[in-house]
Amino acid sequence: MSDTLAPDEAAVVIAASPFLAELVKLIRAQDTFGRREHKSDADILKPFVVDKAARKLISIIDDPGPEVMARVDLFYNAAGLAIERRTGLIASPTIKLNHEGFGRAMLTTGRLIVFSKYHRDIHRFGFDTLQALAEAGDRIVGEAADLIGRFPEVANF
After folding, report:
1. For residue range 12-45, what is the model confidence (pLDDT) as tens digits?
2. Fold held by 7-155
3. Which helix H or strand E contains 108, and what residues bound it?
4. What is the pTM (predicted TM-score) of this model?
5. Which among 49, 77, 102, 137 is least surrounded, fewest beta carbons within 10 Å?
C-alpha cells in the first residue's frame, strides 16, 4: 500500500477535499487511546490506499476481515457526515454485506436514497491513490447534495 504523493502534496489533497476532512476527523475521534495522535493525516488515510500491486497480492476469494469492514464503515460514515455538513440534513449510511464480501451500501436522507452502490470483493476495498479516494468521496457528496436539491420534499420528510 503506497501513495506516491509527497507529504506536502498529500496535505494539499486532504485540505481540498471536504470528504477527506470528515474522514480524518472521524478516524481521529475514534482514536480513544491516542495511538494515531502523532501521525499525519496522510498516514492515517494510508489503509484506504490499496494500489493495483497491493490488490494483486490479496486473494480473489476471501472473507473480509474486521479491519476492512471498519474501513468500509468509516468511508460511508464520513460521506454521510460530509453530506450533512454541506446540506444541513442527516445522511445515514446503511451497509449490508455478507460474510463473503458482497452486498450494498446506501446513504439516505429523510425518505430519499441519495447514494446506493453494490459491492463485491469488499476484502479488496481501497483506492489506487489518495487523490482517487478524495474524488470518490467528494463525488458521492456532490451527487447526494444534488439529489437533495432536486427532491427537498422527500429529503426533508
Report:
1. 999 999 999 999 999 999 988 888 889 999 999 9
2. Putative cytoplasmic protein (1.10.3100)
3. strand 103-109
4. 0.91
5. 102
